[in-house]
Amino acid sequence: MAHNQFELLKTRRFLPFFITQFLGAFNDNVFKNTIIVIISYEIFANNSSASDLWVNIAVALFIFPFFIFSGTAGQLADKYDKAKIMQWVKFFEIIIMTIATFALYSKSVIFMVSILFLMGTQSAFFGPAKYALLPQHLKENELLGGNGLVEMGTFVAILFGLIVGGVLITLSHGFLITSTTIVLIAIAGFLASRKIPESEIVDPQLKINWNFITETSRVIKHARENKVVFLAILGISWFWFFGALILTQLPNFAKVNLGGNNQVFTLLLATFTLGVAIGSLLCEKLSGRMIEIGLVPFGALGLTAFSVDLYFASNHLASGPLIGWLEFLKHGNFRILLDIAFIGMFGGFYIVPLYALIQKITEERILARIIAANNIINSGFMVLSAIMAIILLSLNFSIPELFLINGILNALVVIYIIKRVPEFLMRFLIWMLLHTMYRVKHKGLENIPVDGAAVLVCNHVSFVDPLIIAGFANRPVRFVMDHQIFKIPVLNFIFRTAKAIPIAPEKEDAEMKKKAFETIEKALQNGELVAIFPEGKITYDGRLNAFKPGIEEIIKKTPVPVIPMALQGLWGSFFSRRGGKAMKGLPRRFFSKIGLVADKEISAEIANADFLQQKVRDLRGDLR
Hints:
Helices cover 66% and strands 6% of the residues. The chain is mainly α. The chain contains 21 helices and 7 strands. Helix 3 runs antiparallel to helix 6 (174-193) and helix 7 (212-224) packs across helix 13. It has 3 domains: 1-208, MFS general substrate transporter like domains (Growth Hormone, Chain: A); 210-421, MFS general substrate transporter like domains (Growth Hormone, Chain: A, Up-down Bundle), CATH 1.20.1250; 433-620, Glycerol-3-phosphate (1)-acyltransferase (3-Layer(aba) Sandwich), CATH 3.40.1130.10. It has a 7-stranded mixed sheet, with helices on both faces.
């Protein structure tokens, strides 16, 4: 098992896949930018309106195949070996790039943009197999890091492709060099794909529907069946709307608002790409190698904040001759570069967990078709982004104003997603707590079963004990907690969203206690994970209180494995009762070291209160 995402690059199950998809994105953009340069600076050098028209036609022809062929591509990737599909796609790339060499020499606009349609078709068939293959070759705790590497590689490949495509064609013998390069890259991609290990065929009996109209409708219907999956797709598609608007405006933004030449545009593009790469790679570190959807609201906050700041930093028109990148930096434009870098970085935080979430919770049998639906909707959002930009610019909005509107719309979209799936906000609040107040060292959490009913028992030191356990558990946890703690503002939102079970002593509210035990029994019968603090209250002195017999009653009614756990180092924290009332005044300590330890499961037959109490005491040790 890879300890971090870079270890994956040493494995055969990931490295050939990574090289294949990197070279594919690289080659797409080498050829695409070569065509744009030829159209803009040779064929229509003195006709900017014709140049703009054909550049937009070229982009549209690359996107259009995603609408037509994604449904079919998703079916093929579910019915056949995904590795074989990727190999066939890369083989056809060699043929397409060979034909592309004739298109370049012909200087026929229609011929060249037709090749872009073929390349878009190839990408439409590649995408579902690419993303559906990842969860077959990676373990669950490698998914986030693997997706981070893929997104980093994609954006770096796009950047290098745009630069190389723009440079090679301007060299002496540029057509020969470019033609040779794109064919060699295609061959290298095919050879890399041959090393991708075979994948399991998930739905060999699937009958292919070749009608792209009905299949497009069907795959989108599949995606809508799972609310969380569909909203994750909408979230990803929104990012492509957001990112496409920024990237398509960067050339004119660099020229009109910043007074920069093509060097400044390249600098802005490189800065954005570097930001996305860093954000994508940091996801694994920030999430502790688990799929942390709390990063999505965090990323969204950054996208809005830095888009708004970019508006204030650049809302002016440049004057005078165009300047290069060195002169641009001398003028103190670091704030603009930082805004663009952080937009890219927070974009990485935002999009990588969403891809991993779809791969994790989607039924394997239909995953490629769900990815196909994602690609279709992504393409639609990018088209809408272009339409919105055209309309706003025609109404005399400036490019910085577009960035401002983009940031505001982003906030509204995320509010909508959070309202529909409050788990995103819940996980964000937990993530923020665990990454500001504490540094958590955990051990033995692999003992928590990945599926099936079980009960976690733990000592109760503070008001945030459930949040710490929830933040590091490998699956959702239903917490049983004192009804007074359940009602605490802010925490109440988290507890309600996590479907916590409030309980009260029988003498205080017998009906609530009865209902709690019934809910616990039902949850365990449904195969859920339930966490209990058998002390029944938060400690007042840091010591472990006696475990109440309620835990025995629960296990007796529904015999399931019990996993003892212990929290260490929380006594004396802001949320503990050391010194009297908890959460009094302001927190005095940040990034405090605490521990969370889990032991092997105990069978229901021997899991009595005294035995479990001793187990938890041993796990906690002297660290209160």
